[in-house]
Amino acid sequence: MDWDINTKEKFKLFISKIPIFHRRITEETVIKKAEENALLRNSQQIQEQDVLAAFFSDVPSPFYSMMVRLLEQTGFDYKKYSFPKITELRKN
Fold first, then answer.
1. Tens digit of each residue's pLDDT (9 = 90 or more) over 54-63
2. Which residues lie closer than 8 Å to 53 by C-beta, 6 or more apart?
3. Domain ranges of the chain
């Protein structure tokens, strides 16, 4: 599936900043979920909102604060899309 160029660059930067032993599984999981999110929007392109929704839906609670910090460091504007959702806060 195609990616928005800016989103793809931010995603690559994000992946490069997480601990090496988590990179592959994180990358595979988020890409799969982001593709599903794009398809649910009837889009053939993965956009920032799809990646953010994937991160916020699938990141285990012990890694939540690190994820938020890295999203901010890599330029993802999660607040623009109203993340985190109330149910995500309760889960973590």
1. 999 978 888 8
2. 33, 34, 37, 81, 83
3. 2-91
4, amino acid identity: D
How does DSSP assign the chain, residue by residue? -EE-HHHHHHHHHHHHHS-HHHHHHHHHHHHHHHHHHHHHTT-SEE-HHHHHHHHHHH--GGGHHHHHHHHHHTT--GGGGTPSPHHHHHH-
In the chain, which stretches have pLDDT less than 50? Answer: 87-90, 92
pTM, two decimals, is 0.88
